[in-house]
Design brief:
It is a single chain. With about 400 residues, the protein is an alpha/beta fold. It has two domains: about 230 residues, Peroxisomal Thiolase, Chain A, domain 1 (3-Layer(aba) Sandwich), CATH 3.40.47.10; about 150 residues, Thiolase/Chalcone synthase (Peroxisomal Thiolase, Chain A, domain 1, 3-Layer(aba) Sandwich). The chain is built from twelve helices and 13 strands. The strands form two sheets. Strands 1, 2, 5, 6, 7, 8, 9, 10, 11, 12 and 13 form an eleven-stranded mixed beta sheet that branches. Strands 3-4 form a two-stranded antiparallel ribbon. Helix 6 crosses helix 12. It is globular.
Length: about 400
């Protein structure tokens, strides 16, 4: 059974929607800068300039929610635009997030400490699942709603779960992706791991020091052939391959040899019925941490041998958007396929000593891009790979 993609939407530090995003990518304009908010001002982050109230007003959001939920609504509404709810089509939403409504909880706790208008009712936004419910409410979806929280692989795993539910006949159509906002909790957590870069991150560079965090959301709409026959939507791409594999090496670090990443990529290729040589571009996880980029480089070499396709990390544009990254980068993959694009790996100057791999260094147009492999790796060795392909 084929899994078709009939819609996509995203919001990140480089823009909202396709036009703004492509303009930033083409002009190699990063969205990473010194943060403007109290919790981000000491760091280089991929921060979205719009406030919560501006998001609600500009994008006509009816549903209240945390910043995580609001960002998700903006991207999911883009993806689901023109998709009508029908009793004939079982429609679901599967959303990945790592922080949920943490931003509201943090503000309420500050109010409590300062004796300022503390409202305990607002803690109800805290649960990750609440943001999914609110996004689904905004879209009018109620057949099935689920939340995945597997750190940085969450959105990719949402894509996989959606595809499996369509194949099993449990759903006909599903909105899948992820959303995350920047919070004090997130920043403090990554600071404790000592994997921040005080400057702009350098994915796959020998002198890389760590990541820049970001916020955003990305969603795509998956449909079965049955659903397409009813909706008459025009597919923009296909989800052809997916896999999740755990290397169970460490609570936060990837295995040095990239064993889990290798398994994930190989199994995704098997599901898609493709050979490594069929892949035209790899959107790598590429967090710019010493551990991840070495591990992923080793895995890419192991899977693709001597014929390594163009690869790059787009996190030097958006920052690492955590649970949202697999959704945002799935949209990047669709744009690459439909426009014949390869994206540059910003801030690169020197190959990693152990692997000697050079990523894609410039924005290129007019390329033949039929199949894109996208990696998303989470803490605990939760490695996920999806493959997006041109419509036959």
């Amino acid at each position: 059974m084929k899994i078709y993609i009939t819609g996509y939407g995203l919001i990140s530090a480089i823009g909202v929607g396709e036009k703004e995003t492509l303009d930033a990518l083409k002009n190699e304009r990063s969205g990473i800068a010194t943060g403007k908010k109290e919790e981000t001002k000491a760091y280089k982050v991929g921060e979205i300039a719009l406030s919560n109230e501006e998001l609600k007003t500009k994008y006509k959001l009816r549903t209240d929610g945390s910043r995580t939920a609001l960002l998700g609504m903006v991207a999911a509404k883009q993806a689901f635009e023109g998709h009508l709810i029908s009793d004939e089509i079982k429609t679901g939403l599967i959303s990945g997030t790592s922080v949920g409504g943490m931003d509201i909880s943090e503000q309420e706790y500050r109010n409590y400490l300062n004796n300022e208008n503390h409202n305990p009712e607002n803690y109800k936004h805290h649960s990750s699942g609440v943001s999914s419910d609110q996004i689904a409410e905004e879209l009018g979806i109620n057949d099935f709603i689920n939340t995945i929280s597997t750190a940085c692989s969450s959105a990719a795993n949402a894509l996989m779960m959606g595809a499996r539910m369509i194949r099993s006949g449990m759903l006909d159509r599903v909105v899948v992706g992820g959303t995350d906002s920047l919070t004090s909790f997130t920043i403090s957590g990554f600071k404790s791991l000592m994997i921040f870069d005080a400057d702009w991150c350098k994915p796959f560079d020998n002198s890389r020091k760590g990541l820049n965090l970001g916020e955003g959301a990305g969603y795509i709409v998956l449909e079965s052939e049955k659903s397409l026959a009813i909706t008459k939507k025009q597919p923009v791409a296909q989800l052809t391959g997916w896999s999740n594999a755990s290397d169970a090496f460490h609570q936060t670090a990837s295995s040095p040899d990239g064993q889990g990443a290798q398994l994930s990529m190989l199994e995704a290729l098997k599901v898609a019925g493709l050979k490594p040589t069929d892949i035209d571009y790899i959107n790598a996880h590429g967090t710019a941490t010493p551990n991840n980029d070495l591990s992923e480089s080793q895995a890419i070499k192991s899977v693709f041998k001597e014929v390594i396709p163009p690869f790059s990390s787009t996190k030097a544009f958006t920052g690492h958007t955590l649970a949202a990254s697999g959704g945002i980068e799935a949209v990047f993959a669709i744009l690459a396929i439909n426009n014949g694009l390869l994206y540059p790996n910003l801030n690169f100057s020197e190959v990693i000593e152990e692997t000697q791999l050079t990523p894609q260094l410039s924005f290129e147009e007019g390329k033949t891009v039929k199949h894109v492999l996208s990696n998303s790796f989470g803490f605990g060795g939760n490695n996920s790979t999806v493959i997006l392909s041109r419509v036959d």
